């Protein structure tokens, strides 16, 4: 028994063996809550007090909830970013209506140049013939 500076009993934190933790984790996977008789049975089989088992399960549920909440937040962020990406793609499709329309190569040179710049990295790389009446360089 440890005593503090005032002579009162000092509470020490129990350390559980690997076997005890393994059994507690396995039980927790099966059920997140233990009823009184189940808790008593588990405590007895592991050489622990019922209070230790009860507190271990309370702490483990808290850890589980935090992890679950973090996973849900990550999934929501991923879903939100995918929604934004799809929303952005649909907005670009609306802007690209001209891209899907047939062009007249004789009269839409400026439109062709703008579309190529917009949709090809580096401005396109395609050489267009100069409009009629202009000399090539």
UniProtKB/TrEMBL annotation:
Biased amino acid composition, Pro residues: 128-137
**Pfam families, per the entry:** Homeodomain
One GO CC term, this protein: nucleus
What are its GO biological-process terms? Answer: cell differentiation
Q: Where is the composition biased (Basic and acidic residues)?
A: 77-90
Could you confirm whether the keyword Nucleus appears in this record?
yes
Stated name of the protein: NKX61 protein
**What is the gene name?**
Nkx61
């Amino acid at each position: 028994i440890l005593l503090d500076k005032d002579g009162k009993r000092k509470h020490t934190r129990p350390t559980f063996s690997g076997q005890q933790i393994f059994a507690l984790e396995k039980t927790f996977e099966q059920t997140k809550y233990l009823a009184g008789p189940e808790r008593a049975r588990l405590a007895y089989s592991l050489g622990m007090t019922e209070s230790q088992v009860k507190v271990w399960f309370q702490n483990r549920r808290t850890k589980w909830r935090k992890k679950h909440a973090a996973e849900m937040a990550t999934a929501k962020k991923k879903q939100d970013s995918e929604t934004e990406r799809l929303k952005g793609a649909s907005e670009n499709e609306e802007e690209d209506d001209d891209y899907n329309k047939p062009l007249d190569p004789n009269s839409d040179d400026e439109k062709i140049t703008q579309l190529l710049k917009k949709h090809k990295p580096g401005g396109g790389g395609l050489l267009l013939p100069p409009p009629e009446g202009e000399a090539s360089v």
